[in-house]
Inverse folding.
């Protein structure tokens, strides 16, 4: 490279996502995918000879897992293979793989050639990412490094149905990779295919990144980045790799095709192993499973079960309900939140009013219970109850401040908001006499602030309004307080001492 010149590079990224499917049993055996309610998940307690890979056992395909991959493929506009879907053995040897191979799909996946439109907020653009395939396989066991030179294996996860979704190398920045992951998670949750929880490990994401000279069409040396437990980590890791690749190429170094892990604390990637190719796994057809041929009728049945997808819902919220793009995005980020919002609107609340409460106080209370795994569909207060509370506010029978207090109570109890308002005496006071008396008392108690307001310090009106509201325990109609207080101040009336 000539002195004083610098090559401009284009970033090329492809994404692989593994998502555990929401089934009751494992992929090829009847073992449960989760412990029974109230039962501790003891290591190696949800296992059987099949998922432990014992000699003489035979796998049986989980029909529901197949349906969830079909559902995902249809949501991603993929082609669904109906002639013959073949399971294959992916051979590699690692302590978390009891059989010494993983039953997967490669040459003939269940769905392929799809796409996903992704909005990238930080770039102000929408990009369409091609989906190479969404196929079905089984998860591995969980390997835990215990220290002191040994590791332990928990086989409870071995055999859990797993869907792998692979993109073409269509992403051009770490920000696009993050937006893709967030959009895909939103879709998987909306159709009920996966919990897609990265912290819990039910969704794992890897980025494959390379650089090439801007304007060229070839691909550079690819590096896969693993150990990513959040979308923030994904974006940070890929940003680090882009910079590392560019520096190495500028020096004239040769990059190695390898798998690297992300060290969140140190903010850097670390070499794990050389990157495998497909032929390293020695794929061959699984002899214990016949080809799978989804019928046209079965595919049509699955297609009929597709719910409204997040992109379509956002369009409906903005075009038909008049919501802002921000409100629509917050509501559709979680399928249960969006369904709850729809029910509140159906109960008679205007969309904007419902959205304000749903994206504000309701979401704040949900976030407080996030550690308990609470979602909108599990809240004790049903949508009709929230609609009742919003209606009381809009009718002027309770202040917004007191309504928030009521919501905190009924959120967990499921009681009627009207009943709580009556019991706690939280109804809004609109009586002009009571409000006038409170205003008189405030004008008398703060003569200095009254004089300053009349001298031109108009911002003191808020202070005086607050004092009136305080005297009336927050129950006064704030609109009436503002109007009457302003009238008296401008008329030069003094309070009664």
């Amino acid at each position: 490279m000539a002195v004083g010149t610098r090559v401009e590079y284009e970033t090329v990224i492809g994404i692989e996502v593994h998502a555990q499917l929401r089934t009751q049993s494992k992929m090829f055996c009847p073992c449960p995918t989760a412990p029974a309610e109230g039962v501790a998940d003891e290591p190696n307690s949800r296992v059987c000879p099949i998922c432990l890979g014992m000699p003489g056992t035979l796998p049986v395909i989980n029909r529901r897992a197949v349906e969830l991959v079909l559902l995902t493929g249809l949501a991603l506009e993929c082609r669904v293979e109906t002639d013959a879907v073949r399971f294959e053995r992916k051979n590699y040897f690692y302590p978390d793989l009891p059989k010494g191979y993983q039953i997967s799909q490669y040459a003939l996946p269940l769905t392929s050639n799809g796409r996903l439109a992704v909005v990238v907020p930080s770039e102000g653009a929408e990009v369409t990412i091609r989906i190479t395939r969404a196929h079905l396989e089984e998860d591995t066991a969980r390997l835990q490094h215990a220290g002191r030179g040994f590791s332990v294996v928990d086989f409870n996860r071995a055999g859990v149905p797993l869907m792998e979704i692979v993109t073409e190398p269509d992403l051009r920045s770490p920000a696009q990779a993050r937006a893709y992951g967030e959009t895909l998670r939103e879709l998987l949750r909306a159709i009920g295919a996966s919990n897609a929880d990265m912290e819990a490990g039910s969704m794992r994401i890897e980025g494959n990144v390379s650089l090439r000279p801007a304007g060229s069409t070839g691909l550079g040396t690819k590096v896969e980045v693993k150990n990513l437990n959040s979308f923030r980590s994904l974006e940070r890791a890929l940003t680090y790799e882009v910079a590392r690749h560019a520096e190495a190429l500028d020096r004239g170094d040769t990059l190695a095709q390898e798998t690297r892990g992300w060290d969140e604390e140190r903010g850097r990637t670390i070499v794990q192993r050389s990157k495998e190719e497909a032929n390293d796994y020695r794929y061959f057809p699984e002899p214990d499973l016949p080809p799978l041929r989804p019928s046209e009728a079965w595919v049509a049945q699955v297609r009929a079960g597709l719910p409204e997808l997040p992109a379509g819902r956002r369009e409906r919220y903005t075009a038909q309900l008049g919501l802002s793009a921000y409100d629509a995005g917050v509501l559709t980020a979680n399928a249960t939140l969006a369904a709850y919002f729809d029910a509140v609107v159906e109960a008679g609340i205007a969309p904007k009013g419902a959205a304000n409460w749903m994206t504000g106080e309701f979401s704040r209370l949900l976030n407080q219970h996030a550690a308990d795994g609470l979602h909108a569909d599990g809240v004790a207060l049903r949508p009709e109850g929230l609609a009742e509370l919003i209606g009381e506010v809009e009718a002027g029978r309770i202040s917004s401040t007191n309504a928030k207090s009521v919501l905190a109570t009924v959120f967990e109890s499921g009681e009627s908001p009207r009943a709580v308002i009556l019991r706690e005496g939280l109804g809004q006071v609109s009586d002009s006499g009571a409000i006038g008396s409170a205003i008189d008392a405030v004008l008398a108690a703060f003569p200095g602030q009254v004089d300053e307001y009349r001298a031109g310090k108009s911002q003191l009106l808020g202070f005086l309004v607050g004092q009136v509201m305080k005297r009336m325990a927050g129950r006064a109609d704030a609109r009436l307080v503002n109007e009457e207080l302003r009238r008296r101040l401008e008329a030069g009336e003094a309070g009664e001492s």
